[in-house]
Design goal:
Elements (H helix, E strand, L loop, with lengths): L1 E14 L2 E6 L2 E7 L6 H13 L3 E2 L5 E3 L7 E6 L21 H17 L4 E3 L6 E16 L1
Parallel strand pairs: 3-6, 6-7
Antiparallel strand pairs: 1-2, 1-3, 1-8, 4-5
Helix pairs in contact: 1-2
């Protein structure tokens, strides 16, 4: 499982020309899953992300969690995080989990974050989406399990 986490002032996702989800201050996450991922890894990363101190305090130091600042999270599935570009000019996505494997793990990840009391909004799994973000910092963290 691979996450790209960005601290944002706002973020939104649209599909088919309509806005699906929108958040204010918080974290925007791209979630990539591979066929080797399982529920244990998903649970571990949900726990880790929920406790990460990425939000700025009064001194502009990353000392606060999302919950500390009343922030939100926008989580979007992104199979292209597992692209392989070693074999030519067209990326291969063979390492990415098939939708029937990825969807339940993605949904579990979102559910686990919500269980932590984090307001989580999502994109639409498997659909073409347009993403808009206003990065804050910028702060971008890549996590892989």
């Amino acid at each position: 499982m691979k996450l790209v986490i960005q601290r944002v002032k706002s973020a939104s996702v649209s599909a088919n020309g309509s806005e699906v989800s929108k958040i204010g201050k918080g974290l925007f996450l791209l979630v990539g899953l591979t066929h080797e991922d399982n529920e244990t890894e998903v649970d571990f990363l949900a726990e880790k992300v929920s406790k990460m101190r990425l939000m700025a305090d009064d001194m502009d130091k990353m000392n606060l969690t999302l919950s500390d600042v009343g922030g939100e999270m926008l989580v979007v599935s992104q199979f292209t995080l597992y692209s392989d570009t070693t074999g030519g000019n067209r990326p291969s996505f063979i390492k990415a989990a098939r939708p029937e494997v990825a969807r339940p793990l993605y949904e579990r990840f979102v559910d686990k974050l919500r269980e932590k009391g984090i307001p989580v909004k999502t994109g639409r799994f498997g659909e073409y989406m347009t993403l808009n973000t206003v990065l804050d910092g910028p702060v971008t963290i890549v996590m892989e399990n």
